[in-house]
From TrEMBL:
NCBIfam families, A to Z: PRK07487.1
Keyword Hydrolase among record annotations: yes
Keyword Hydrolase: yes
Keywords: Hydrolase
Protein name from the UniProt record: Amidase
Family: Belongs to the amidase family.
Naturally occurring in which organism (per UniProt): Paraburkholderia pallida
């Protein structure tokens, strides 16, 4: 069998299996061998599904041999983050108290990936309660960035991004409430897509029936991969209908064509904020590459980026302080508690009903203004983060440092607050540290983000971490 299948992209594996050139067992075995080689150092996977993955691979090979129709991810090794449900496995959320919380049924995103033929080879790490941009917890330990061990792999899907970057799987599931797909992809030099809320059905049955507003409309499920094309394939697989999410929308994956040249707003300045020079340079490279690909790029600022950040804080921090902070204090680890209280000290404010309702009203107004902006500029090219990936543990250095971290993540929270699709795509390295950009479009126009991302990716030629 080929010994380097773990290096292949997901679509290549799926097509080779469909043609009978390789078997799913060979693909899964290759990734399991890679996991054995690198996971002890990186600690991206909290659990390795060795026996069940090989059984599933054999079933996939039997299905192919029988001539049955195959899904887009048929036989492809994938990972699932440990904060959604996989039947019969613990949904730990990186929390000691949840180590024995065994899922009784799949989450919708798990079901959809399995229906598309994917083979789950393991579960990926997350900070406790997914509360940090640094992936470590008292239950599973610290996940390292495959590029440099002194910088964060991102969070909360840091295990997913590290696994993809290190070659343990071609595609990983993640989720994103405040950047938890886009930031880990950025930090690990891979691609990550935050879909529009409603695109991919989302629910974690083991967490109960009731979900807050932010859990419904800020939080989404999305893919992390080494190529934009794999994101496209994975999004199609993830987004199948599931009646358990009443907010799911049957929107087409391809929207109506826009007469060219498609206009792109370049955001390399944000009033009152500092964008690190390597990030600005990356944006300028990406802008030139888009122009080379036929896009029309102008410097233009969408409406009130800072207000979008404030809206995220008003809504989410009110919910956290009222319904979640006590849980983190009681069951979280030291890192989660310290990060939470630093955030609350800086941006918690008074958790009043007026603040919450005003935040929701302001959100509606700002979304309307952005919709008008997208009529002129269907795409926005902006930072993923305003700073390079953080040094390990910065969020435990007090309120002042946490304020710097939160401000740097303005572009992440802004896009979550407005429920827009955002694509994180790598540009290259700065002194050995990954650097990338974010591409944003209007609701359910992931197709525009992905097309622009492919144009950048083809020209960037981002190296791999292995």
């Amino acid at each position: 069998m080929p010994t380097d299948i773990w290096r292949w992209e997901a679509w290549q594996i799926a097509e080779a299996i469909a043609r009978g050139e390789i078997s799913s067992r060979e693909a899964v075995t290759s990734c399991l061998q890679r996991i054995d080689a690198v996971n002890p150092q990186i600690n991206a996977l909290t659990h390795i599904n060795r026996e069940s993955a090989l059984r599933a691979a054999d079933e996939a090979d039997t299905k192919r041999a029988s001539g049955e129709p195959l899904g887009a991810l048929h036989g492809v090794p994938v990972t699932i983050k440990c904060n959604v449900d996989v039947t019969g496995e613990p949904t730990t959320h990186g929390v000691l108290a949840k180590r024995d919380l065994i899922a009784q049924t799949h989450s919708p995103v798990t079901s959809n990936m399995l229906k598309a033929g994917a083979v789950i080879v393991g579960r990926t790490n997350t900070p406790a309660f997914s509360m940090r941009w640094f992936t470590e917890n008292a239950l599973h330990g610290r996940t390292l960035n495959p590029w440099r061990s002194d910088i964060t792999p991102g969070g909360s899907s840091g295990g997913a991004s590290a696994a993809v970057a290190a070659g343990m799987c071609p595609v990983a599931h993640g989720n994103d409430l405040a950047g938890s797909v886009r930031y880990p992809a950025y930090a690990c030099g891979v691609t990550g897509l935050r879909p529009t809320a409603g695109r991919v059905p989302s629910w974690t049955p083991s967490s109960g029936e009731l979900r807050t507003f932010a859990a419904q409309f800020y939080a989404v499920q999305g893919p992390i991969a080494r190529s934009v094309h794999d994101l496209r394939v994975s999004l199609a697989a993830m987004s199948a209908r599931d009646t358990r999410d009443p907010n799911w929308v049957p929107a087409p994956l391809e929207g109506p064509a826009i007469a060219g040249p498609l206009r792109v707003a370049l955001v390399d300045e944000i009033e009152g904020m500092t964008i690190a020079p390597p990030i600005r340079e990356a944006l300028q490279h990406a802008a030139r590459w888009l122009e080379d690909a036929g896009y029309a790029v102008d410097r233009a600022t969408p409406p009130d980026p800072r207000e979008g950040f404030d809206i995220w804080m008003d809504v989410a921090m009110t919910e956290i302080s009222q319904s979640f902070a006590q849980t983190i204090d009681e069951y979280g680890d030291d890192g989660a508690r310290e990060a939470l209280h630093a955030m609350l000290a800086k941006y918690g404010g008074e958790p009043t009903l007026e603040r919450y309702m005003t935040g929701l009203s302001r959100r509606d107004r700002l979304r309307r203004r952005w919709n008008a902006f997208f009529e002129q500029y269907p795409l926005v090219l902006m930072p993923t983060s305003l700073d390079l990936p953080f040094q390990w543990g910065m969020d435990r250095e007090g309120v002042a440092v946490m304020a710097r971290i939160l401000d740097a993540q303005l572009p992440l929270k802004l896009i979550s607050a407005l429920n827009l699709p955002g694509l994180s795509v790598p540009i290259g390295l700065h002194e050995g540290v990954p650097v990338g950009v974010q591409i944003v479009s209007s609701a359910f126009r992931e197709d525009l983000c992905l097309a622009a991302g492919e144009a950048i990716e083809q020209r960037a030629q981002m190296p791999l971490a292995f």
